[in-house]
Design a protein that fits this description.
Elements lengths: L2 H23 L15 E3 L4 E2 L2 E5 L3 E6 L8 E2 L19 H11 L9 E5 L4 E6 L9 E7 L1
Parallel strand pairs: 1-4, 3-8
Antiparallel strand pairs: 1-2, 4-6, 5-7, 7-8
């Protein structure tokens, strides 16, 4: 193959790929993550917004995937009150099962514009992560008050 033709094809391919990435990142405006009160916590490409959220016992918190990436909401067992039930998108009963399900078949995934909700019945602090983006520091905290 002619070297110039090859380089032009590669350059075009790379440019198209990068353009696709930037359009995915810019699909939603962060200011409107939960417009219309359809959620409490939005999910951008690699963060929960807001990162820290406060609610009351008995209240339901709604997370919404407002990005083009797939996410999870996965409680850290070491980061929830002892008396509290475990929670994770996908309905898993413990953190290891949630992690295994994600790695096996993207279990617990929340696709674009989908929501996950959980009702908090025990006061305290709850730490949670997005499994596929935890290395990008996609973590959050819910503080539940009486």
């Amino acid at each position: 193959m002619n070297r110039r033709v090859y380089l032009a094809a590669v350059g075009t391919s790379v440019s198209a790929s990068l353009a696709g990435c930037s359009s995915v990142l810019g699909v939603f405006d962060d200011a409107d993550l939960c417009a219309g009160d359809d959620c409490d916590i939005g999910m951008t490409r690699n963060e929960f917004v807001p990162r820290e959220y406060e609610t009351s016992v008995g209240e339901t918190v709604v997370w919404k995937n407002t990005s083009g990436a797939v996410h999870t909401v996965t409680a850290l067992e070491s980061g929830i009150p002892d008396e509290a039930d475990y929670f994770a998108s996908g309905g898993y009963e413990d953190e290891q099962t949630a992690r295994d399900a994600w790695h096996d078949h993207q279990g617990g995934r929340i696709n674009t514009r989908e929501t996950y909700e959980y009702t908090f019945d025990v006061p305290g602090t709850y730490d949670y992560i997005c499994i596929p983006h935890v290395r990008s520091d996609m973590v959050g905290t819910i503080t539940v008050t009486e």
